[in-house]
Please model this.
Amino acid sequence: MSALTRTRTIHELFVQQPARLLGTGEVWRYCRAHGVATCRKTVRDDLERLAVQGLLSRHGADNGRRYLLVREGR
Model:
């Protein structure tokens, strides 16, 4: 599974639910259901990468952190 495919799948989940905060566990379950999950840490790293790229915003402490889609114009 390529990192690009996995990242696109994760981003699509957030696009489908733009106003919803999502945690690593929920995103990991979504990835597993779509056949793109490797392990929970990989998904967590992908979420952090999307946040660094400015596509997701971080909410909460490191342990239990959730993410939200950054919408253009905000």
In short: The chain has a mean pLDDT of 91.
